[in-house]
From TrEMBL:
SUPFAM superfamilies: Glyoxalase/Bleomycin resistance protein/Dihydroxybiphenyl dioxygenase
Native organism: Arthrobacter mobilis
One Pfam family here: Glyoxalase
InterPro entries reported in the protein's UniProt record: Glyas_Bleomycin-R_OHBP_Dase (IPR029068), Glyas_Fos-R_dOase_dom (IPR004360), VOC_core (IPR037523)
Name assigned to this protein: VOC family protein
VOC domain: residues covered: 4-125
Amino acid sequence: MFVAKGALSSFSVNDIPAARQFYGRTLGLTVADGGMGTLDLTLPGGGKVLVYPKDNHEPATFTVLNFLVEDVDAAVQQLNDLGVQTKIYDDPGLPTDDRGIMRAEGLEIAWFKDPAGNVLAVLKD
């Protein structure tokens, strides 16, 4: 039987200083330097994410991190006020409003990207 002590997620970026600025200052997460040039993110609720540098980084084409919020409209406004674009999809398969919010089947979600192009989202809790 496999028994793990814990778990964390990870994803790559092409610019660690830009990631530190974005995740720490823009999104307000606790960011610590990790080993070998990595960053350790502490998420609301205590979860951990390892962000690692990769010279040939290719942005994830899927959502790598979801932030649960009480009010998606308010979260989108806060992100937009910080200069974060939330209208990243213009796709009939993902019908979003002019602010980038999709409301379907009880789901409210808006996507945005980090400086490395990875997809993140705010999602109604």
